[in-house]
């Protein structure tokens, strides 16, 4: 058989694999044995494409080989199964434009966008819009944030990006091979200022040559991208990269392999003490990293301060509350740290019978209908919603409908309307409409009495031949 027919990664709806990777944790081998998997798992629900992870005990011809990490292989089959794409119509590049899947024209197309960015002022709206049509810039910034947080010492070279063979497809990035981060090269790696290092020209051949920071440097020339970078970094640090969330995930992953580690150590001449020491470095990193990153963001973008913000959501009347990249649960309180002075986008949706009327609280101001800005180092913000005035004809409802019939009872489509408002309702000027703008039916100019019914039938003669109800119909 040319497939592994097994759900190797149970969290994914993929039942067969052409290939996969057995990874020994790379530069983290015989240290924590899970660092790369941990870093990628932290951001898997934050709009960053990653390789799935599952630890495995491996035997080669019966010989115990210790713990290896099962990972998805980043190739055309990864894109096929994860994005439902034709595997023969995808391109993958790596490093500084090296072709993994594709041909010279693939590289040329990618390079043409880089040349455009180099030759044009990216602070201008038209130039940014062109790049947006070629690069998924929001995906790139999220990817860059993950690398920046991790302090990955190999971030400059371990880059992979892909696109589908379509005129409208955009280049997107894949996060992988991050085991040289999270304090691997130094126990105080959490203090390293990668916000600055990854967003400026570094005159070095490795690990962060100028070409590796080019895209983020050019995108940050535009105020919109600068705000998106700052706010999205805050979103990450308030959720998946928050110290509590990170520690909970790390402990769950440790619990998944701790019983096996003594045997792994015996096989590869490691020790439990050394393992615990390495895990301690990672735990310290995730505890302390957010504090330093917030300070580096303030310095990099000349911001005045950070702010502890509480969003208090109303107990009813709110359907959706989107704060930048975060969709916050209804009827809850959300607390996080944001940056004073940046424009934070929001989206609010209410049920049909409610409306959003504005904000109340302190430590903020509304910039326009889609953005607010934090103005103090402590803010309490509440979106205000209220019921819409009730209609005088609230009691008119669609009571029954038939949009699909059996062969033996083919009445064609119809809708029954019922008046339980307690008073007569005139239908003069009323219309019925579905989701298509040209599907409009004018209601008959009649008055529907209290407790009365009317049927709007696709064919009233056919309807009458199936049903013999004493109702008005048209």
The biggest sheet amounts to:
5 strands, antiparallel
**Which structural class is indicated by helix and strand composition?**
alpha+beta
Distance between the termini: 62 Å
DSSP strand tally: 24
What's the overall average pLDDT, rounded?
92
- Percentage of residues in strands: 25-35%
Could you please describe the fold and organization of this structure?
With 474 residues, the protein is α+β, with helices and mostly antiparallel strands. It is built from 12 helices and 24 strands. The strands form 7 sheets. The protein has a 5-stranded antiparallel sheet. Strand 20 and strand 21 form a beta hairpin. Helix 5 packs across helix 8 and helix 9 packs antiparallel against helix 11. It starts with 19 loop residues before the first strand and ends with a strand. The mean pLDDT is 92.
Task: Give a quick summary of the entry.
The protein has helices at 35-42, 76-83, 104-119, 125-134, 137-150, 194-197, 214-219, 223-238, 243-255, 261-268, 272-300, 460-466, and strands at residues 20-23, 53-60, 63-72, 90-94, 98-101, 160-164, 172-174, 306-312, 320-323, 326-328, 333-339, 343-349, 354-362, 364-368, 371-374, 378-387, 396-402, 414-419, 425-426, 431-433, 440-442, 447-448, 453-457, 472-473. With 474 residues, it is α+β, with helices and mostly antiparallel strands. The chain starts with 19 loop residues before the first strand and ends with a strand.
Q: How would the blueprint of this fold be written?
A:
Layout: E1 20-23, H1 35-42, E2 53-60, E3 63-72, H2 76-83, E4 90-94, E5 98-101, H3 104-119, H4 125-134, H5 137-150, E6 160-164, E7 172-174, H6 194-197, H7 214-219, H8 223-238, H9 243-255, H10 261-268, H11 272-300, E8 306-312, E9 320-323, E10 326-328, E11 333-339, E12 343-349, E13 354-362, E14 364-368, E15 371-374, E16 378-387, E17 396-402, E18 414-419, E19 425-426, E20 431-433, E21 440-442, E22 447-448, E23 453-457, H12 460-466, E24 472-473
Parallel strand pairs: 8-16, 23-24
Antiparallel strand pairs: 1-3, 2-3, 4-5, 4-6, 6-7, 8-11, 9-10, 9-12, 12-15, 13-16, 14-15, 17-18, 18-23, 19-22, 20-21
